[in-house]
Amino acid sequence: MATNLTFHPGSVDHHERVDLLQQSGITIWFTGLSASGKSTIACALEQHLLHLHKFTYRLDGDNIRYGLNKDLGFDERSRNENIRRIGEVSRLFTDAACITLTAFISPYRADRALARKIHEEAGLNFMEVFVDAPLAVVEQRDPKGLYKKARLGEIKEFTGISAPYEPPLDAELHIKTAECDVEEAVRIIIGYLLEKGYIF
Ligand SMILES: Nc1ncnc2c1ncn2[C@@H]1O[C@H](COP(=O)(O)OP(=O)(O)OP(=O)(O)O)[C@@H](O)[C@H]1O
Ligand SMILES: [Mg+2]
């Protein structure tokens, strides 16, 4: 941790910003196995929210690993750091009053708890969406061919096969994608955002 730092607050605080922009920020944290549908649902939700003229942005696993996190691998420490950085970036977006969608496997409970804590400590909204489908289903979908490679041992530390996934115990929403389609998932999330007053 660097020393001699002083936080420089803006002239407009978060609540004023929300008032002026007429939009409150929230981080919607999608977690689940690869191919469970995180990116698919986040993309559809992003499109829907943009059509409602909501300032929305999606931070998506592979995309972030092309840039900000290109120095990180998939061992446990790198995954921790990957999620820590996303937690911090999503906090900044949400502080800017953005509806921030994050789509990362984020397999460890402690990492997701840290992302939540980063937001809560800053007084910012955060919710977790468990995008859930059985391993047999996601392995059958395998849109990127990753499960096949993992089974052949060509990918080490693959979540669900050779690395753990710790399902959420306290997610705000639990969406079972083997039982509902993408449109239904978007409807469920929008309904929740409206009910809780996160969008208005
Ligand atoms: N109800 C559903 N919701 C979302 N995706 C579904 C659903 N039913 C089938 N699919 C399909 O499952 C696949 C999900 O892939 P997607 O890339 O969204 O997963 P992901 O969770 O983002 O995985 P990764 O962690 O590898 O990025 C897509 O091919 C999608 O079309
Ligand atoms: Mg994805």
Describe this structure in words.
Keywords: Amino-acid biosynthesis, ATP-binding, Cysteine biosynthesis, Kinase, Nucleotide-binding, Transferase. It catalyses: adenosine 5'-phosphosulfate + ATP = 3'-phosphoadenylyl sulfate + ADP + H(+). With 200 residues, this protein is an alpha/beta fold. The chain contains 8 helices and 5 strands. A 5-stranded parallel sheet has the order 2-3-1-4-5, sandwiched between helices. Helix 2 (38-51) crosses helix 8 (182-195) and helix 4 (76-95) runs parallel beside helix 5. It is globular and about 55 Å long. The chain starts with 13 loop residues before the first helix and ends in a 5-residue tail after the last helix. Adenosine-5'-triphosphate is lined by residues 32, 34-41, 61, 103, 105, 141, 143-144, 177, 180-182, 185.
